[in-house]
Write a structure and sequence with these properties.
This protein has about 475 residues and is of the alpha/beta class. It has a domain of about 210 residues: Rossmann fold (3-Layer(aba) Sandwich). The chain is built from 22 helices and 15 strands. It has a six-stranded mixed β-sheet with strand order 3-4-14-9-10-13, sandwiched between helices. A five-stranded parallel β-sheet has the order 8-5-6-7-15. Strands 1-2 form a two-stranded antiparallel sheet. Strand 6, helix 8 and strand 7 form a beta-alpha-beta unit. Helix 3 crosses helix 11 and helix 17 packs across helix 18. The longest helix has 21 residues. It is globular, with a radius of gyration of 21 Å. It starts with a strand and ends with a helix. The chain binds pyridoxal-5'-phosphate.
Length: about 475
């Protein structure tokens, strides 16, 4: 299988090249030329596999030039060791509603599923392609991606990683997770300003030709770890299959029974992995796209109009505070079947901040997707009601999706993707439960543990005793200098 750009560059590349390059030269995203098809017999066989075994079957379909034995081994090493209690853990919340808890990895957010594996894919791709340069990964993060990338890339030979986060834009826990990061090849900087300032600064570095040439003289090449890279997307396809199998087992449903998924969405990467699973042949009813108050995707999936010219809200679910959902471009390409059309929409978006896809495309998208959004007050109320009715504790991102899932529930089972541990945002969660909120996240974690009797992940409580290694605060203008240092 080869990969092509969503914007019409006719050159095809291998999966390894797509992962090393990240973006296509024409600004488009890499997508598989065809989506692998899975028969009913295969599905039946897959339903009995462990998570690591299942990953070992699915990854080779999309990464054909990697040695399948390498992929199986990598999947085993990552998914059998890095996830407490086993990868793909799916909890029953109430009759017909399940929570796919994706936060039992080392950094307590779903991004671990991709970022624990992707560094191995990148290192192997460089080896296969004969790239000997040092790869320097630059990441602008609102919290979760930065830590997950640091943990995934730490101490990998030939790779360095440099993370920029907004000084006052993360929870205390998220900041400490990054500032205490171990590893000889990692660097972390706080940036004065908000996430957009950090992101703009990093994007400037990527597009600065002179800077790139200067770094190439030192045999260093910049790369990114965000979800536009195919290597971030492909590992996420696995858990849609795995969770659907577990839920059907639990409900004694036949193999061909459909399930719905509800996904708290920002950059449209996680939910797009579900689209690939569905197109491969997993029986899925709807993929429900859940947004917070930054509900640009709800508007798009309802009207066909993508309008980014709107107020940006800072919410309690910061990883979904996004107005440009980059991975939507991949869906538009698959649904329209036209790179020229996709390129035109993306041009309109960058020039005017708005584009419209028309009735026909919208109705095709709506065959697979539904949508909804949750405001700040309702998000908190949902954390409280889930806990008081079902003793189920959600973080803010999961709560946004829980509420939308409630509204969209049909006769089909509903699987909500739970994307972060509630202990990553302990003060908001405690406040939602109607408790007095202490100043420190660690005190809030202790209060939350005492209240719920659910132990917090050790990787979070142990932060209190870890040495803070990174205290540097820079301005957004200083990002280029820091990235090249
Ligand atoms: C990144 C993130 C999301 C959004 O995922 P996308 O792939 O960007 O749509 C949702 N919840 C949490 C906790 C996240 O870290």
């Amino acid at each position: 299988m080869r990969y092509i750009s969503t914007r019409g560059n006719t050159e095809t590349v291998s999966a390894a090249e797509a992962i090393v390059r990240g973006l296509s030269g024409d600004g488009g995203l890499y997508v598989p030329e065809t989506i692998p098809q899975v028969s009913e017999e295969t599905l039946q066989k897959w339903s009995g596999l462990s998570y690591a075994e299942l990953a070992g079957e699915i990854l080779p379909l999309y990464l054909p030039e990697y040695d399948p034995a390498f992929l199986k081994k990598a999947a085993k090493e990552v998914y059998e060791t890095a996830f407490e209690g086993g990868a793909g853990y799916t909890a029953r919340v109430r009759d017909g509603v399940y929570s796919l808890e994706l936060w039992h990895g080392p950094t307590c957010a779903f991004k671990d599923y991709a970022l624990q594996l992707m560094p191995r894919l990148l290192a192997e791709a460089k080896r296969m392609l004969g790239h000997a340069e040092t790869t320097r990964i630059l990441v602008a993060t609102s919290g979760d991606t930065g830590k997950a990338a640091l943990d995934g890339y730490k101490d990998l030979p030939g790779i360095e990683i440099c993370v920029f986060y907004p000084q006052d834009g993360t929870s205390q826990i998220q900041r400490l997770q990054m500032a205490t990061q171990e590893g000889a090849n990692v660097r972390v900087c706080a940036v004065e300003g908000n996430f957009d300032d950090a992101q703009t600064g990093v994007k400037k570095v990527f597009s600065d030709e002179a800077l790139r040439a200067k770094m190439e003289e030192k045999n260093i090449r910049f790369s990114s770890a965000n979800s536009i890279n195919w290597g971030r997307l492909v590992p996420q396809i696995v858990y849609y299959f795995y969770a659907a199998f577990r839920v059907k087992e639990d409900m004694h449903l036949p193999a061909d029974a459909k399930v719905d998924f509800c996904v708290p969405t920002g950059n449209f990467g996680d939910i797009l992995a579900g689209y690939y699973a569905k197109k491969m042949g997993l029986p899925v009813g709807k993929l429900v796209c859940a947004s917070n108050q930054n509900n640009v995707l709800t508007q798009f999936l309802t009207t066909g109009e993508y309008d980014a010219r709107r107020t940006f809200y800072k919410t309690a679910s910061p990883s979904m505070d996004i107005l440009i959902s980059s991975n939507l471009e991949r869906l538009l390409f698959h649904v329209s079947g036209s790179a020229a059309q996709t390129k035109e929409w993306m041009k309109e978006l960058s020039e005017n901040g708005i584009y419209t896809v028309g009735e026909e495309i919208l109705s095709r998208i709506r065959e697979d997707f539904d949508c909804g959004w949750t405001d700040e007050e309702t998000c908190r109320a949902t954390i409280l009601s889930c806990y008081s009715k079902e003793r189920y504790l959600c973080d803010t991102h999961t709560a946004v999706a829980m509420k939308v899932a409630e509204e969209k529930k049909t006769a089909l089972p509903m699987i909500v993707l739970s994307t972060a541990s509630p202990y990553k945002f302990p003060r908001v969660v405690l406040e939602a439960l109607g408790r007095t909120v202490p100043e420190s996240d660690f005190d809030a974690i202790a209060d939350l543990e005492e209240l719920t009797k659910m132990p917090a992940p050790k990787s979070l409580t142990q932060l209190k005793r870890k040495e803070v290694r990174f205290t540097q605060v820079i301005t957004a203008d200083g990002i280029a200098e820091a990235a090249c240092g």
